[in-house]
Automatic annotation (TrEMBL):
PROSITE patterns: RIESKE. Residues 38-146 form the Rieske domain. It comes from Blastococcus saxobsidens. This is Rieske 2Fe-2S family protein. Its cofactor is Fe cation. InterPro entries: Rieske_2Fe-2S, Rieske_2Fe-2S_sf, Ring_hydroxy_dOase_asu_C_dom, Rng_hydr_dOase-A. It comes from the Bacteria. Keywords: 2Fe-2S, Iron, Iron-sulfur, Metal-binding, Oxidoreductase. CDD domains: RHO_alpha_C_GbcA-like, Rieske_RO_Alpha_N. One of its GO terms (molecular function) is 2 iron, 2 sulfur cluster binding.
Length: 373
């Protein structure tokens, strides 16, 4: 469909096939997820040497591990001998090294090949050259971000830049001090929908009045359907009688120590392409990491982050968790309701975006440019 078929105020979406076609998803894996910085793990989940997590990024399985020197490193989860996956469990701990379960090649926590049966009779095997393949890693906001590209794009431009574009500066997010916050609750959602439906849903608020009764109670301006998140620096204001960002608007916790007065009683939502959504409220932060696993399946891990004091004191976080958990369930149900229609002939040429959703077309153009380039 071309835009000339439509009134000027309407813009076509991507055709349905972009959400169902394995080849399109393959291009997204190789040209988006395997090229960009991808938020992999919460650094504090790997507190001591030998702790590791396995994550799927594009077509690759990646191990993130805490080294003996205290630093985090990432490697492809592939044995250099004959290619067996080193780890099959999602997370765990090794004492000093990873040992491949196939022929027992052994790699230390910096990825170096340190032992293999009969290796003394194979002096030509270079232990560094045949070490685990390293993957670029940066830590920011308390998370390890990895990049599979040989030459990663600028972290400052792509990741930090996305935050600056939304909030105006980095100081605005630094005030929430995400590095020091702790996970009060984590919920993993296995969503039967294409990752782009989830991004598009997060980017618009046209649906808020229809599916988010609790959220629009707390943030009345969302009932108007404007995507408040796309005005630089704009935070949606809490309703007058709302005490906190909780499921019933009741009192939350003390404001995070660094949060400025002009950020108090406000909600900021931001997207860091391709796979992160962050929500900032005065007393906690809600951090989503997406893992697109197939053209019709995306795992979303959502962390609710609070001060150490709130988490350690065992204070009841359930009312604040419940608000966004409901929002997540409402959003993901909408995405799952939409996914089957993507393969219908009714959607073969796509749908339309109304004016308040126009910024989604910029996302469509971005995805299309990346996969065609
Ligand atoms: Fe790993 Fe042989 S495949 S030791
Ligand atoms: Fe929503």
């Amino acid at each position: 469909m071309t835009t000339t078929d439509l009134p000027a105020s309407l813009i076509p979406t991507l055709p349905g096939q972009h959400y169902t076609d394995r080849n399109v998803f393959g291009l997204e894996q190789s040209r988006i997820f395997e090229q960009m910085w991808f938020c992999a793990v919460r650094a504090a989940d790997l507190p001591t040497p030998g702790k590791f997590e396995k994550v799927q990024i594009g077509r690759e399985s990646v191990l993130v591990v805490r080294g003996r020197d205290g630093g985090l490193r990432a490697f492809l989860n592939i044995c250099r001998h004959r290619g067996a996956q080193i780890c099959t469990e999602d997370s765990g701990e090794v004492k000093r090294a990873f040992q491949c379960p196939y022929h027992a090649w052994t790699y230390d926590l910096s990825g170096k090949l340190i032992a293999a049966p009969n290796l003394t009779s194979m002096p030509d095997v270079d232990r560094v050259q045949y070490g685990l393949v390293p993957v670029h890693l940066r830590e920011w906001l308390g998370y390890a971000w990895v990049c599979l590209a040989d030459e990663p794009p600028s972290f400052e431009e792509d990741v930090m830049g996305a935050v600056v574009e939304r909030l105006g500066d980095l100081e605005s997010i630094d005030r929430y001090d995400l590095d020091t916050l702790e996970v009060g609750r984590r919920i993993t959602y296995d969503v039967k929908a294409n990752w782009k439906l989830i991004v598009e849903n997060f980017m618009e608020c046209y649906h808020c009045a229809t599916i988010h009764p609790e959220l629009t109670e707390v943030l009345p301006e969302f009932a108007d359907g404007y995507a408040a998140q796309y005005y630089v620096g704009h935070g949606a204001e809490f309703g007058d009688d709302v005490k906190g960002f909780t499921v019933d608007g009741s009192e939350g916790f003390d404001k995070l120590p660094g949060v400025a007065d002009d950020q108090d009683r406000r909600y900021y939502a931001l997207t860091v392409k391709p796979s992160v959504f962050i929500n900032l409220v005065p007393d906690h932060v809600i951090f989503h990491r997406m893992f697109p696993l197939a053209e019709d399946r995306t795992v979303v891990v959502c962390d609710w982050l609070y001060t150490k004091e709130v988490v350690e004191s065992g204070k009841d976080v359930s009312r604040s968790v419940e608000l966004f958990h409901r929002v997540n369930e409402q959003d993901f149900e909408a995405c799952e309701r939409t996914q089957p229609a993507m393969s219908s002939r009714a959607y073969a040429r796509g749908g339309v975006l109304v004016p308040s959703e126009h910024h989604i077309s910029a996302f469509h153009e971005w995805v299309s440019a990346r996969i065609s380039g």
